[in-house]
Design goal:
Shape: elongated
Order of helices and strands: HEEEEEHHHHHHH
Number of domains: 2
Helix content: 40-55%
Largest sheet: 3 strands, antiparallel
Strand content: 15-25%
Distance between the termini: 32 Å
Number of helices: 8
Radius of gyration: 21 Å
Length: about 150
């Protein structure tokens, strides 16, 4: 059974002017991974060219890098080569503060990591937001992300 358009697209309007019909559906346009995306008020996402959800390559790459660095630091591979985090960062060609911020991604709550990898992360989530303003407690992260 199909849903009535009023329920499926709240705020939609149809008007007729002489021999033309105008249909207005509130949508939000945004860019993701270089693609133009469209989001209707229903919360359903779709690419300008229809396809499956596409994971945010920037976030996925940052997560992969963070976990690789974390493993490198924990296994002692880095410990035998680098005396300080500054040495580790300079070897990677980045600033020490960047390494620290990126390592925070290893503390994200699992549901969010899965959603990012599936391409279904919350609207407006960015690498900057994840590396700067996210608390370490998972329940606090969950409530902050859902705000």
């Amino acid at each position: 059974m199909t849903q009535p358009l009023d329920k499926k697209y709240p705020g939609r309007a149809v008007r007729r002017e002489v021999d033309q019909i105008f249909v207005t559906i509130p949508v939000k346009f945004y860019r993701r991974n270089g693609r133009q995306m469209v989001q209707a008020k229903t919360g359903e996402r779709s690419a300008a060219s229809p396809s499956e959800p596409v994971s945010n390559a920037t976030l996925v790459a940052a997560l992969a890098k963070a976990w690789a660095w974390q493993e490198e630091l924990e296994t002692g591979i880095a410990a035998s080569c680098y005396r300080t985090l500054e040495d580790f960062a300079s070897e990677k060609g980045v600033d020490r503060s960047y390494v620290g911020r990126l390592l925070r991604l290893t503390s994200l709550f699992p549901e969010l990591v899965e959603r990012i990898l599936d391409g279904n992360e919350p609207d407006g989530i960015s690498l900057r937001q994840l590396t700067k303003g996210i608390p370490f407690n998972w329940s606090d992260q969950s409530s902050k992300i859902r705000e």
